[in-house]
Amino acid sequence: MSSRFHAELINSPFGDPGLYVRFPHRGQAVLFDCGELHALCPRDLLKIRVVFISHAHIDHVIGLDHLVRVFLPQDKLLCLCGPPDFIAQMHHRLGGYTWNLTRDYPLRLRLLEWGEEEFKETFLSAKESFSPSPVRRIPAGPILYEDEHIRVRAEALAHRDIPSLAFRLEEPVRLGIDKQALREEGLEPGPWLSRLKESLLGPVPPDELLVRRSDGTSASCPLPWLERRLVLRQEGTRLCYVTDASPCENNHRKILELARDVDLLAIEATFPHQELERARARHHLTAHLSGHWAKEAGARRLLLFHHSGKYAHTPQLLEQEAVCAFKK
Questions:
Q1: Which fold has domain 6-172+236-327?
Q2: Per residue in 72-112, pLDDT tens?
Q3: pLDDT in tens, 31-45
Q4: Helix (H) or strand (E) holding 170
Q5: CB of 308 within 8 A of CB of 319?
Q6: What's the rounded Cα separation, in Å, for the pair 51 and 33?
């Protein structure tokens, strides 16, 4: 069973941060950070269902206005998740525009704000000119966002004197069917296989399930036997996104925990390690630290971004340093 999502940087590693994660099998996507978005066509942008913002520095949020503009005439619910003060920042951002012609526009925004002690949630609509609405307070938990396809955990990393959120996205356990076992048992593929998966993932699975035999007849089979004989279980794909983090021990510890055994770690590599003091002063990671921490966490693949423009004339320098530390 292959991964159900594909992740790619929107811009070059020297451009604005933005990781586009698409789910081809259901025509949807999520976005981590929202820098310049013009590399994505409107068709790709409209697949986005959730945006996760690490922090509100301009290079991480400059694309939000463009995203809202593309979505404006769509009958969709777009969820935007961000750090402390994110709801107020979005109110100010949207309040800078005039919305007197949007009463017939169906777009709705769900704003979800992370906090150490509580999350905050509110809904805005184009019909109401994105005017502020009541805010619901939710006790903080390990999961910031969850739906039937993904769950996303956030962790606050120190970026000088503000938090920069890092994210871990996980798919739920995936169930596949052993086609050879299906043939050996004389069973015919069909809709009952979907019901089998749904039953196993449901809160109260039935004792038996109606199956279809190869000879066209039907029969009831015990669910435990079907699971043992036919079902292949695989952990869902795991992805971690880390950016704008001071190279300190507390961030090191948090990143190792968040990125533990992920299939892909997308992480900033801003300066070479020979400029560690500069990295500390600017509160960004060196390429060596990013590669070394990825190895410590057991990440399977590494995706680097947020390179300092100072090294644009030697574009391979930072990548080579990180990869060397990752594979050493």
A1: Metallo-beta-lactamase; Chain A (3.60.15)
A2: 999 999 999 999 999 999 999 999 999 999 999 999 999 99
A3: 999 999 999 999 999
A4: strand 162-170
A5: no
A6: 7
DSSP label of 54: S
How far CA 117 is from CA of 122, 165, 317, in Å, comes to 17, 15, 41
The residues that bridge with 167 in the sheet, in sequence order, are 154, 241
Render pLDDT for 260-317 as a digit per residue (tens, 0 to 9): 999 999 999 999 999 999 999 999 999 999 999 999 999 999 999 999 999 999 989 9
Q: How many other CB atoms are found less than 10 A from the CB of residue 201?
A: 13
User: Measured between alpha carbons, how far is residue 149 from residues 5, 29, 118, 174, 300 in Å?
Assistant: 11, 11, 24, 10, 22
Q: What's the angle, vertex CA 297, arms to CA 294 and CA 299, rounded to 5?
A: 60
Q: Per the structure block, which two tokens stand in for 67?
A: 């995203």
From residue 160, give the alpha-carbon distance in Å to each of 1, 79, 156, 283: 42, 28, 12, 6
pTM of the shown model: 0.87
pLDDT at 3: 54
Beta-strand relationship, 48-52 and 28-32: parallel
- Provide the residue ranges of all domains of the chain, joining segments of one domain with +: 6-172+236-327, 182-234
Q: Which residues neighbour 33 within 8 Å (Cβ) at sequence distance 6 or greater?
A: 16, 17, 18, 19, 52, 53, 54, 60, 61, 241, 243
Nearest to 3 by CA among 193, 167, 221, 170: 170
Instruction: Determine the Cα–Cα distance for residues 102 and 73; give it in Å rounded to an integer.
Output: 9
The residue-averaged pLDDT of 236-256 equals 97
- CB hemisphere CA count around 285 (13 angstroms): 30
Average predicted confidence (pLDDT) for the chain? 94
Strand pairing category for 162-170 and 19-23: unpaired
More confident residue, 53 or 2: 53
Comparing C-alpha atoms, which of 269, 264, 271, 252 is closest to residue 306? Answer: 269
Q: Does residue 1 carry a pLDDT above 60?
A: no
Residues in Cβ contact with 123 at an 8 Å cutoff, skipping those fewer than 6 apart: 108, 109, 110, 111, 133
